[in-house]
Structures are given as structure tokens and as C-alpha cells.
Design brief:
- It is built from six helices and 13 strands.
- It is of the alpha+beta class.
- It has a seven-stranded mixed β-barrel with strand order 1-2-8-11-10-9-7.
Length: about 280
Amino acid sequence: MRPYWRGHISFGLVTFPVKLYTATEQKDVRFRLLHSECHTPIKNQRYCPFHEKVIDWKDVVRGYEVSKGKFVTVTDEELESIPLADTSHSVNIAGFVQLTEIDPIYYEHSYYVAPDEGGAKAFLLLRDALAEVHRVAVGQVVIREKEYPVALRPYEGAMVMETLYYGDEVRALSALEELPVQTKVHPNERKMAIQLIENLAMEFNIEEFKDEYREKLLAMLKAKGEGQTVEAPKAAAPGKVIDLMEALKRSVELAQAQGQRGRGGRERRAAAAAMNERPR
């Protein structure tokens, strides 16, 4: 893999060089847009509606809308001239927190952190110290023209850095008209829900989760590519509408029955999927 970013990590007076590698990749099935008549991939072109013509990349500039229909342009040199303290080429660690203090809603992207030349000893020192005190380093860094808050933590003998959203980038719950929910839950319903959760308790193992939709989609595309006729399956009938307490009772009974037979994570999810009654 090629490094996504190279720079330094600084904590206290200790600074050492590192490389970042993207830790995740999406495996969506990607479709091309084709002309329905000849199945030729279509092209996206840069069209100027004012001059009514297609323009070249050399004639494209960045612009920011300061008011309706009014833009100011900015050059690469102007962007590079903005002072960014010590975060332009360095992960500047501000302090150390408990991992549970960072809600997952703030996570954006994950990167593997590897030591660059001459940084191995300090890299191991920080990794091992974080693991021993069960803390996460937090700070800021600039990556590709944007400054991010970041969290740095040990991960399987290495380290991972997550870029985070700023507080004002996470939308406030107060914007939702449906919240707070104004209704009452009977103590017996709450007790039954807790029992159901405990019966479906499991250890998290991401390897047990498979993208079954993607697998079936690829199988369908392969069959079409081989000239086979593909028929769409009939839609499943919606679950029977029953009351909430009855749904909880039946869910607990099914979970307990599955538990007595013994099951792993996949079986637990299948049992949970089987509980498709819709409360009213």
C-alpha cells in the first residue's frame, strides 16, 4: 500500500515520523451509467451554462459563494498561505482520554499508523504506554487542506488514528420534531425487553457479519452475464400486527428456545430476524 499521508506525531517534547495508510475500503457493487440504446458508458462533462459550452479543466477554478450568486475565487497558493500552527505536517497531541469518552457518532475515517524512518522506538513507546494506561491520544492534524480533530489508539500491536467530526458538524437532536418521545412504557414491558436483550447477548465478532445482499447481487449479475433469465423473488408478506407485550413474549420464547439448542452469532441474528412482528 502507498502511504496516504506522511508527517510526525508530537506529544510533549517527543516527535517522531509516521506514515498513514487508509484502514478501510468500501466494497459496494458499482454501476456505470450507460446509453440505453447502445450500452456505451456516458461521459460527465464540465458545462458552463453562461457560455453554453463544455470547458477544459484548465479553465476551472475554485469558488466560494459569499452571497446569492456572488463568488470569490481562491488559488492553491492562497490556500497554502493560511497559517495552521503546528498541525500542517504533524499530529499535535493535546492530551489523553478514555476511549468511552468519545461517542462513535464523532468517528469519520480510520487510518493505520506506521513508523517512518527513525521513528520505530518512539512509536513503540507511545503505543505501549497507551495500552498500559488504557488511554487514547487526542489532538489535531491537517490532511489535504482540512484540519481534523483526531483520536490515536493502540490496535492489534499497531496503532490506528481516527479523524473525528467537530462538535458543530454533528447535528443537534433538538432539530428532530419527534424527540423527545412523549409516551409511557409499562414496567412489565421494560422487564420483558431487558430479558430479550439478555437472551440475545453475544460477543461482537465482525467476521460473522456478511454482506449477503452484495453476494446475491453479484450472483445475479453473473447469471445475467451468462445469458440466464433472472426472475425477481416474490416480496415477503408483512408481519402480523400484534400488540407490543405479545411481541415481546413471543420474542423471548423464541430466543430462549434458540439458546437451549445452542447457537453462535449468525444463529442469534437469524433468531432476531425471525421476530418480524410489527407492534402497534
